[in-house]
Please model this.
Amino acid sequence: MLKPLSDRIVVEVTEAEEVSPGGIVLPDTAQEKPKQGKVVAVGPGRISDDGALLPMDVKKGDVVLFTEYGGTEITLGKKKYTVLRQPDILAIVP
Model:
């Protein structure tokens, strides 16, 4: 598994719905890009200008919403992950 550095977070991407709520099968081009996922690894945090370690707001296991174009997408095996910086996380889903 990846070990993120600094304020980076590894998120396992949640796949987009393939069927609309009305039962219509959506082609890949019509599906929204996933913007939600489960945190699988978290870096130690960012170092502030005065040298203090700023802790992360998210932890492993959290489900988060993130910006559509934030981060770097990677595939390991058959799973898709996105490596994000903490500012790219919009919210933690309860």
The first strand starts at residue 8 and ends at 13. The chain is about 0% helix and 40% strand. The domain at 8-15+31-93 is CATH 2.30.33.40 (10 Kd Chaperonin, Protein Cpn10; Chain O). The chain has one domain: 8-15+31-93.
